[in-house]
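Recap from last week: sequence in, structure out.
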Amino acid sequence: MKIRDAIGRVLVMIDATKSKATYTTYESGLCKFERYLWNDEIYKVEHLQVPGTWIGYAEHLASLGYAPRSRTVYNAAAKQLLDWLVLHEHVTISEHGQMHYKHAISTYKGKVRTDPKVPDLEKVAAISKVAMHVIDNWQVNSYVEVRDATIFMFLLETGCRVGEVVEIKTEDIDFEGMSVVVTGKGDKTRNVMFGAKTYRALNNYDLRKGSIQGLPAYFLSCRKSKLTTHGVRLGVKRLVLRAKLYGFKLTPHMLRHAFATIALDRTGNLALIQDLLGHASPETTRVYARFTDRVKRSEYDQIWNEDE
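Predicted structure tokens:
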């Protein structure tokens, strides 16, 4: 069996079970794996060494200087291929080989950040005030300004991923129930709620946008095409500058971290936050609990440091 054919079948499987973003990243990783094999003139499955070839690929990625997170994802893509080949009995791997592979991969994995990059919440609050001022004065502000402010409030109050936001359609929003259906990783849908400020923002955004039929998405570019994730990032940067917080780094995904931290601090309900964020595993959500514990420890220490 040709390597390319095996990769093609694995990509079909990934496309059916993973999100579009994950598929794209895994596809890139498998393409790199195939090029790595070409350098050694390996074109057929029967010429693969298990687990030697996969360990060599991990070492190859590390030598090229890829970031730890990129190496982790690319190795995961290659592991998907290995699992598929083993499952369909194209190759075999012993228990010892599995342990050797796992140990070797951990060596080349590198240090990956596990704690969320939570922004300065006071600065986020300041930007949200600026955003609401833009929204409340929607008649005198441009469409782009109102759209950027609305998306900012939506991200902050829902904790949605930026990729989920750009895919929202008008029919997904339930204004009466103050909720919206979003499609997350693995094409899984979930219902997220929003608050009074976002409700006001969405209403004023609709007024500024006007009634247009046959739209490709709810949030639009200036040319009335679907807004891209890059467009959302630029919008957040413009709001940071409007708030005169020069040099403050803020991304749409950091607003997701801000939402999780605030929500967990106010409710203490990990299960609720996991559901709202669309995390498949509670372990992913627990990192926010560790963060809030550190913040509480720091603030507690300041109580007594002031007396020294």
